[in-house]
Structure formats: structure tokens, C-alpha cells
Amino acid sequence: MIRWLCVGWIAAISCIGLTQSFFQYCHASVWWFSLFFALLFYYLLWFKDYSRSYFILSLLLKSIAVLSIFALGWSYADHQLKQRLADEVQYRQTVQGIVYIQSISDGKLENWRQNAELLIPNENRSLKILLYPKRIYNAAGEAIGLSTEKLQLGQFYQVIVDIKPPHGYVNPGGFDQEKWLLQNGIHGTATVLYSQPLSADEIQRMGWYRFVVEQQRPLAQWRLWIEQLRLSYRQQLVGDTAANQNKALLLGLLTGDRSGISKDSIELYQMMGISHLLAISGPHVLILAAMLTWVLMQILHALMRRGVCRNLYQYIPKPYVCLPIFLLCVSFYVAFTGFEIPALRTWIMVFICSLALLLRIRISPFTTLLCAACVVLWWDCFAILSAAFWLSFGASAILLLIYQQVQEKKQEPSLGLIERFKVLIALLWQSQWRIFIALLPIVLWQFQAVSLISPVINLIAIPFLSLVIVPLDIIAALIWLIIPSFGHLIWSMAAFLLAMFNHVLLLLQPVAAWLYLPSYLNVFALLSLSIGIILISLPKGLIPRYWAAFFILLTFIPQKRALLQFDILDVGQGQATLLRTANHQLLIDTGGPAWQEGQASMGDRVIVPFLRSQGIRSLDEILLSHLDLDHSGGAAAVIDHIRVKQLRSNSYDKVLTNYPAVPFIRCDQGQAWQWDGVNIEILFPRENYSRRNQNESSCVVLIQTEMLGQPFKILVMGDLGWEGEFYLLQDYPDLTADILVLGHHGSRHSSAYDFLAQVNPKLAVISAGFDNRYGHPTPETLARLQALNIAYVNTADLGAIHIELKQHQSIWSWQSARATRQWLLPKSTALRLDFAD
């Protein structure tokens, strides 16, 4: 029963934020009574040994209990979610307030960011925000520093910040920044405009006496001391430059601080399938705790030999003395690493096992793991949103399964040393492949790629890093506190060994790159693969194995598509749309480039992940409406990762359209073709039209098919303005459309009143950036739409927009990416899903 209750609780928390209306019934208080009576009657049957005689009744009571715990779990998660969303920043504003720096920063230079507590005197509240730097320039316009270079740990500052609500690009398959901010409890992001240090006395005189007192309490001071210790290790190992990547990796293995690890190092470990080793794991925690426990026990024994507590073991058995010391060491290191999920899992499992040992209760390993997962989610239900939660507990479950199978096998006591070594290697190899296969759906879902060489590399990397590098790293850190020079010597030794290991990885990189495969599986395919792997993992004889083969086969069977699918992606202040027919794909525009060095373009950040999540391996054509970078900047990234058969644009450019493997065609009025019953036609520009003004010579695309015997049309305008609209209506005076993608992101110089009146769309779609500096869509454009009673949606508010026509005899429909989770809902519609009684 305990296992089933744990599974019900985990399943409930995993549904956090879902917007389906039937979840409102989970808030009913009747679930408390149903859970109580179901458990009461179930354990009465169990106590009287009637559970087998009344099997149906027992199964019914168990089902009611699991359903009740599911409802209560979702209600708890929903309550926590609503509380956190209510505290978020609602709109952009410039705020003068006080910040307290209570943790070390992350990243360096342009990638620098700092968690801070923002105290707002006018509103008498505090917010957890993520600070970003603002560049400081001299009179000559040269960058001379960052606005946050001097923020010190444990210090108060009076600041002026430009604060924004949590907001990111919302597209299927893309990184959900708002989910990441929510998971980390961050209420908003801010750019520091001005900062000045203040003393604690000055803060108290401003009316924040209670907050200052809280920071001076023992627990807060202990947390601050841990952060200062982590900062000391960062300064000793990487300093301000992080030039030595081996020492930066040592810092990550020691404290979980990955701010000094370069992008190249992370990509190398990802390609090898060992990036999980850069995070603090259970073995890290246990190794350090065992070392500290051994040292402390040796000190205790030395004191006992000197007559201090000589008779201690006569009153308290030795294991009961050792156990609390071990628990304290585990607790210290978990706090030291910032309560990362793998470390937290180990901490809770150690406590459960220790409690069972003290109380002499037998608990199976799987029950312990499930209980640990439930406690983690009770502690922080938002941990379910992290990939680390699923990977950590999933890998632990597989290892426990392998351990149980090994225990069930008969041991051969006469095996020699070589035979035992062979058995150990075989066991390690078997465990790596089982973990690889079992976690494959999660890896493909979270990272959209898999390294086929990872089981082989992990077979070497896990023992080497866990048994050699991590112990040396921990020993060096402990000795550095006493004899700094000796600690640095051991760190140098560990860095040398790690450099040799990384050199081997670099030698294997060409092979790993060939075996590093991107995923093109959509949600249905991933679900089929997951079911197949689960069926394979079940005990023999429970379910025939051919069912597993059936579901795995479904993964690779192409699914039947709708007649027409059209997606307007959320790429900020730019545009990218995708047309899909039954057998073809056309990408119209590719969003913006990387505006700063080291950043990714919209092709890398949005379009390629979206295409892979939809199972799209190739594009029949990329059509760039024009060559402004906010429409063409992501093309190179798309062509690098996705096979493209043809490139079309309004003009040729030696840089932006010159791809030797992709033929180029200039788009001109009159070009037309048909794909699977869908007609695509270029309406503008005319063949002899000047291409000097990129906006006014944008390619205008009309997509047309039949719906219920009537034409269904989608018109994509690029950045065409009033002038181009005038010529377009001259050539096509009867032009109409059901869906209109507004020109130039809703600029006031496009979408003229007469043009909108003639086209008369049922829905206008605006592709614009959130809080963009141009003010798109402008009030003038919105006023024209409202005057003509034209419904409109904006990707800045609703994320990606998906339009679909399933077949000729159906009606088109649309949905937004932000409608899938409560934290993504626009603030104006968030109240629609308030299910609280």
C-alpha cells in the first residue's frame, strides 16, 4: 500500500500546472475523508488477515486510497503554484529598493547573474529576483565594466533596477525559461542601473529591522558561512578568469558550482554522454560523509584513549555513535552543495534507512526510494519540473533493480580474484546499458539528443571520477582549510589526472560526434518508446514481450498528418512560420541572429528544437521573405542541423543566402506550386520591382486549400508596409484571407485600414517581441483591427500559435503554446483557471 500511495503522490505532483478543468474536483475536502476511511478499512482487513479472502474489496479500498492521495497531492501542488505565481512581478517597472546578496553569483562577464532578495520599501514586501549586469561605458563609448561587479556576498545595497516579470520564448520543444525561474523560486528578472552599499544599521533605520534580525539568526549565518566557503573555493580554483578548465571542473565536482566551466567543456561532456557527472551525485555525498565520519571517529577514539568518554561504548553501541556523526556529515555536504536534487535524494534516503535501523524496521530499497521521492516533492513540489529529478530517481531505480537481480542469483564462493573481477566488469557493463535504455525516453525528451557511446565512456568515467578524482578533490578541499599549500598540491595532482582524462575524451571526440544522434521523436513516439521499455523491464511471464516490440515499432511508424498545419513561432522581435502539409514542409523566415557573442540564434534556440520535437528531419524549402536579420538571422543554424532542399528569398546575398549545398531561387510574383492539396503562391514582389528597400520588397505568400467547399486562405506579409500593400491590392483587388500574419510585426506603417478592410481576416496574428523597444504592435495598428472587429493574437502574449485544418470537411482551429500550463498563461487570463473553492 505504501508504494502505491507514493506512486499516486508522485503522479499528482507531476501534473502540476495542467489546465484541464476536471482538476478542479481535486480541491474538494471529501478526499481527506475518503483517504482516511479507505486506509482504516484496508488495514483492518490486513490486520485480521482478511485481505486475501476479500480481494475485490481490498483492491477497491486500495484504489480509493490512491485516487484520494492523487487528488490531495494535486491540490497541494496547485496551492503552492498559485502562491508562487501570485508573488511574481506582474509588469515591467523601474524600482528603487534594497537588495541583500545571500548566495554566490553564477556565470561571468556577459553571462553573469546573481540571485538576490529585493526589499521594496513602498510596497513593504520582498522578492527573490535574478540580477543581470548593465554595461558601463566611458565618454568614448568604450565598455569599462559592469554595473554589478562590486556586489559582495552578505552585503546590503541600495539599488535602482529595471525589473521585469518572468518571461521567455514559449514554443513546443524549446527551453521553458519561465518554468526554470518558477522552479528556482525567482519572482522576476532585473537589470541593475545603480547600486550603493549600505550597512545593517542603515537598513534597520529604513524600517527593515525584522529582515536584518532574520539574517543575523544562527541558521541564516550558517547558510551565509557555507556560501562564503563555496566562494573561497571558487576563488582558489578558478579565480576571476576560469582559464584552467580542469580546475573549473574540479570546482564543479566539489561544490556543484559550474560557473567556471566553459561552453566547449560542457559540449564535450554532453557529446560523450557524461554531463551528469558534472553534477553533485549520491556517491559524492557518501564519499565525503564517509571521509569526515572516519576522521571524526578517529578523533573520538584518540580522546577515549586519553580517558575522555572512555566508557562511551558501554552505554551506547558503536554503530549508534557512528550513525549520528555520519548523518551530520551528509547534512553538511548536502547544504554545502546547495541542496541539489541528487544530493537531497541521498540525504533523505540515508535518513530513512538510519531511522529504520534505529527502530529495527525492515524497508525495501524501492520503498525507500519512493518515500525519498515523496519527501523531496513535499519539501519542494517544483522539483518535479527539473530533469535532474527524473534522471536521478530513474537511475537509482534501475540500479536497485540490478542489485536485486544480483542478490537473487546464487553466488559462487569458489570464484578466484580474476573471475570476480570479470563478474564485476560484466555487472558494470550490464548496469550501464540498462540505465542507458531505461532513461532513453527521458534523455530524448529533455535534451533532444542521445550519445550512443555513453555506456562505454561511463564504464570508464564513473569509476575514474568517483573513485579517483572526487576523493582527491574532497581531500584537497579539507586539507586546504588547514594547510593551504598542501591542498593546492593535491588539487594540482587531481587537475593533472583530469587533464589526461579530458585528453582521451578529445581523442574520442570524432567517434563520439558520429555517434551523437539528435532526436526527431514527437510526443506520441516518445510515449510509445516509454511503454515499450517499461514492458521490457517487467518480470518475465507477466506480460508477453511481443507487446513491448509492438510499442517500440510504433515509435518509428510515421503518423498521418492533418491536411494543413501552420505554426507562427515565438521568436521575439522577429518572425518564423512553418507550413506543414501531409508530406511537405515549408519554413517561412527564421527569426533573429545571435545578437551577442556566445549566444545562440533563434534557429538554434527555437526553430531547430521545434522541428525536432515535431519529428521533422528535412525541409522542402526555406523561404526568407526578405533579408533583414530579424527574419533571416536563424537560417544558418537551421541549415546546419536540418536538411534543406531549397532556399528562396526576395534577393540574393553572398553571406545570408549563399549555401553551396542548398540551391537558391529568387521569389517573384506568380510563382506557384501545390503540395498535397494545398496551393502556395507568391503574390509579391513583381519581377521587375526594386529590391533596395527590403521591407517594401518582402515576399508575400498566400497559402490556400479547400474547407467545406469554400477556400481557406492564410496570407503571410513579411515586413511589407503601406506602399507594398497598395501595389498588392492593385494586382489582387479581390484579395481576402481567413488568417493574416500582419506585416512588420504590427508596425503603424503597415496594415493600413483599407488593406485590412479588403482582406477582412477572421484572425490576425502578430509576431512581436515581449516589451520590445519599437512598441510593436503599435496602438494605431491595434485601433484599426478593433475598428474593423478583427480578432488578433500576439506571440508575445500567447507564445507560438498553432493553426490546423485536419481535412477538407472539417473546420480550422487554433491554439496557443501558453494554454498548456498555468505558469505560461498571460496575466489577463490567469484567473480563468483559478479552481480554488
Question: How would you portray this structure in words?
Answer:
The protein is of the alpha/beta class and 837 residues long. The protein is built from 28 helices and 26 strands. α1 (2-14) packs parallel to α14 (365-379), α12 packs antiparallel against α13 and α16 (417-438) packs across α18. The longest helix has 32 residues, at 55-86. The model is unreliable at 828-837 (pLDDT under 50).
Short descriptors:
alpha/beta, 837 residues, OB fold (Dihydrolipoamide Acetyltransferase, E2P), single chain, 8-stranded mixed β-sheet, 28 helices, 26 strands
Task: Report the biggest beta sheet as strand number plus sense, adding barrel if it closes.
Answer: 8 strands, mixed
The shape is: globular
Topology, number of strands: 26
Helix content: 40-55%
Q: Poorly predicted ranges (pLDDT <50, ≥5 residues)?
A: 828-837
Q: What structural class should be given to the helix and strand makeup?
A: alpha/beta
The CATH topology label of the domain at 564-826 is: Metallo-beta-lactamase, Chain A
Strand content is 15-25%
Number of helices: 28
Supply the CATH architecture of the domain at 564-826: 4-Layer Sandwich
CATH class of the domain at 564-826: Alpha Beta
Distance between the termini: 30 Å
Rg over C-alpha atoms, rounded to the nearest angstrom: 30 Å
The CATH H-level homologous superfamily of the domain at 564-826: Ribonuclease Z/Hydroxyacylglutathione hydrolase-like
Describe the SSE topology:
Layout (H helix, E strand, L loop, with lengths): L1 H13 L15 H18 L7 H32 L6 E8 L13 E7 L4 E8 L2 E3 L5 E4 L9 E9 L12 H7 L4 E11 L1 H6 L3 H7 L2 H20 L7 H11 L7 H10 L9 H24 L6 H4 L2 H19 L4 H19 L5 H15 L7 H22 L8 H22 L1 H8 L1 E3 L2 H27 L3 H31 L1 E3 L4 H15 L8 H10 L8 E5 L8 E4 L4 E4 L13 H12 L4 E2 L1 E4 L4 H4 L2 H7 L1 E2 L2 E3 L14 E3 L5 E4 L2 E7 L15 E8 L2 E7 L5 H10 L7 E3 L11 H7 L3 E4 L12 H9 L3 E4 H4 L2 E5 L7 E4 L21
Parallel strand pairs: 3-7, 12-14, 13-15, 14-16, 16-17, 21-22, 22-23, 23-24
Antiparallel strand pairs: 1-2, 1-6, 2-3, 4-5, 6-7, 8-9, 10-11, 10-25, 11-12, 18-19, 19-20, 20-21, 25-26
Helix pairs in contact: 1-3, 1-14, 2-3, 7-8, 8-18, 9-19, 10-12, 10-13, 10-18, 12-13, 13-14, 14-15, 15-16, 16-18, 17-20, 18-19, 20-21, 22-24
Subcellular location: Cell membrane
Keywords: Cell membrane, Membrane, Transmembrane, Transmembrane helix
Protein name: DNA internalization-related competence protein ComEC/Rec2
